[in-house]
Amino acid sequence: MSFELDAYDRKILALLQENSRLGFSEIGRRIHLTSPAVAERVRRLEEAGVIEGFGARLNLRALGYTFEAFINITVESHDALDAWAASHHEVLALHATTGSHCALLHIAVRAPEHLQELIKSLGKIGKTTTSIVLSSQCGGRARLPADQLPKMPG
Amino acid sequence: MSFELDAYDRKILALLQENSRLGFSEIGRRIHLTSPAVAERVRRLEEAGVIEGFGARLNLRALGYTFEAFINITVESHDALDAWAASHHEVLALHATTGSHCALLHIAVRAPEHLQELIKSLGKIGKTTTSIVLSSQCGGRARLPADQLPKMPG
DNA sequence: TCTGAAATATCTCCACC
DNA sequence: GGTGGAGATATTTCAGA
Q1: Interface probe, candidates A2, A12, A26, A52, chain B, greatest B C-beta count within 10 A
Q2: Residues in a beta bridge with A107
Q3: Which SMART domains does the entry link to (chains A, B) (predicted)?
Q4: Domain B7-56 -> CATH class
Q5: N or C: which end of chain A has fewer CB within 10 A?
Q6: Which residue of B has its CA nearest to A83?
């Protein structure tokens, strides 16, 4: 993954991070490049793995999820936890971590009873400690502005 | 935020979550709808706040960030923490939480020394406990598949 | 690697249902 | 809310530098 980003690449990444539906022509217009040049750069950034994909940021509440929680869990078997996470659509992310617990689960739930159910289910796999999210910043939004990106990654 | 999603909406959300650069025609082709119909639905979903935006999923390593960490912090003033988060591009997310600490910071760093520097800086604001992320699943990727979305959110 | 031009495909209105 | 068509834009490909 050694890929040297130049100023055009960083600008393109910043624009796509903010709005990935921008057309190549529009991007080109903003950074003073023609659309084939932008298209080729985006293709290379994807190929190099710098861009992993393009997604929509969805509002969890609009999807029926009322709040989020972080569950710290200590397990014997990570496989059992992986399987649990894969089979529960409430899981936003699962991180294996260092520290007093060995994994951190980020989940979205519909109601307190729903959270209770998940905690109870997880209880069969390991020992949990749960924190409810009161408010968030940068949740899935644009981050790491291109202006501040290192010139030589790695 | 009361918006009733029908089967078309859910399919559109699933497709855009997976690849937000799909054209309206292409989406229409896959769900058997014409492009103006898809465009209109996407416009309404954005207007209703169900879709908050479209972004690129970038590889943190390619951007020069070697690993991630979660920092639990207990602070007197949330304002000071908010300001700290806003001024540090390493911050992926900041969550105010319940539990033994009052906030959880998700950050990306270039090297252990870099992390140490951030922890030291945070030490002036509150008391921290840090966990390093060893591996992640679903980090920023597609989630909440449309097939499993509730028919009536809320 | 970029540009410019040509062919193809897409988006955006609009009238109609 | 959806369709279908027309005009304006966009994407893609390629020759040339």
Answers
A1: A52
A2: A69, A91
A3: HTH_ASNC
A4: mainly alpha
A5: N
A6: B137
- Predicted TM-score (pTM) of the model is 0.90
Smallest CA–C1' separation from B8, nucleotide: D1
Element holding B17 (H helix, E strand): helix B7-18
Average pLDDT by stretches of 10, chain A with 154 residues: 85 96 98 98 97 95 92 96 92 95 95 98 97 84 52 41
Mutate one of B20, B45, B90, B132 to test the A interface: name it (highest A CB count within 10 A).
B20
Of A65, A58, A63, A56, residue with least CA distance to A107: A65
Distances (CA, A) of A21 to A16, A115, B101, B136, B143: 7, 35, 38, 26, 19
Domain segments of chain B as ranges? 7-56, 67-132
pLDDT, tens digit, for every residue of A113-138? 999 999 999 999 999 999 999 999 97
**Closest residue, chain A, to B135 (C-alpha):** A96
Question: How many angstroms separate the CA atoms of A149 and A8, rounded?
Answer: 12
> How far B5 CA lies from chain A's nearest CA (Å)?
9
Question: What's the topology of domain A67-132?
Answer: Alpha-Beta Plaits (3.30.70)
Element (H, E) at B113: helix B112-123
DSSP string, chain A: ------HHHHHHHHHHHH-TT--HHHHHHHHT--HHHHHHHHHHHHHTTSEEEEEEEE-TTTTT--EEEEEEEEES-HHHHHHHHHT-TTEEEEEEE-SSSSEEEEEEESSHHHHHHHHHHHTTTEEEEEEEEEEEESTTS--S-GGGS-SS--
Phi, psi of A41 (to 5 degrees): -65, -45
